[in-house]
Amino acid sequence: MLENQNVDANEIARSSPSYDSNLSGQYVFDLLARRRSASPLRLGEPGPGPDEIRKLLTVATRVPDHGMLEPWRIILVQGSAREKLSARLSAALLKTNPHQEAASSDLALRKIKTLLAAPLVVIVVSSVHPSVRILEWEQVLSAGAVCMNLIIAASALGYGSTWLTGWTAYDPAALRTLGVRTDEKVAGIIPIGTASEAQQERARPSLQKRVTMWSAT
Ligand SMILES: Cc1cc2nc3c(=O)[nH]c(=O)nc-3n(C[C@H](O)[C@H](O)[C@H](O)COP(=O)(O)O)c2cc1C
């Protein structure tokens, strides 16, 4: 579906129903000012269709990338693959943690289901190129930028999403199940769908606490 089908980013902007060359700056600003993550359990159908997925991934991967290394890749999980992945991850969880108390293993199994409940799940993998002059840290940050772009783009197309990680992103057996190599890391597992309910706003950072002005002492 996605082979050789990169979408021109300008075309995406122009084809958007809300595009207006004068208003787009304000629109982007408002979107950023209002964006909220959605609860993964509240993300249902409809999810993005094939054209929208192409657009989302085209803008998600349009990120700062020192050295143009593309130090990330993306795994999509959709349709019946979600149930199969859920079953495989659950089996991996019970195998790696056979002595888990029933209550905590129930909770972990529910979390796997929650993770894969949305119509589309995008897994962003950080694939650092080892022996290049660009530091690993910078390559990892670029993968984070893919995640951030993706949730902003999803919000711009009217979809809810949330940037998750959890057990699935760190457990070796879960990573094998996902097809993530041992030299890679999961940067984010991002379910995308239509949010049935808007999230309440949460407390936001205090600039006073987080920002300082450097001055010569
Ligand atoms: C790398 C990363 C991993 C995260 N993993 C989880 C997670 O596993 N579970 C969770 O509830 N929130 C997780 N979050 C937090 C949510 O994505 C989100 O920031 C939070 O729900 C606040 O929503 P907001 O985007 O509206 O500020 C993660 C955030 C980041 C940056």
Please outline the helices and strands.
Blueprint: H1 9-15, H2 24-34, E1 43-44, H3 50-60, E2 72-78, H4 81-96, H5 102-115, E3 120-126, H6 136-156, E4 160-161, H7 167-170, H8 172-178, E5 185-195, H9 207-210
Antiparallel strand pairs: 1-5, 2-3, 3-5, 4-5
The structure holds flavin mononucleotide.
Flavin mononucleotide (FMN) is lined by residues 36-37, 162-166, 188, 202.
Describe this entry's structure for a reader.
- It is a single chain.
- The mean pLDDT is 90.
- Helix 3 (50-60) packs antiparallel against helix 6 (136-156), helix 4 packs antiparallel against helix 5 (102-115) and helix 4 runs antiparallel to helix 8.
- By secondary structure, the protein is of the alpha+beta class.
- It starts with 8 loop residues before the first helix and ends in a 7-residue tail after the last helix.
- The protein has a single domain, classed as 3-Layer(aba) Sandwich (NADH Oxidase), CATH 3.40.109.10.
- Helices cover 44% and strands 13% of the residues.
- The relative contact order is 0.19.
- The protein contains 9 helices and 5 strands; from the N terminus they run H-H-E-H-E-H-H-E-H-E-H-H-E-H.
- Strands 1, 2, 3, 4 and 5 form a 5-stranded antiparallel sheet that branches.
- The site of flavin mononucleotide (FMN) has 9 residues, from loops.
- Flavin mononucleotide binds at residues 36-37, 162-166, 188, 202.
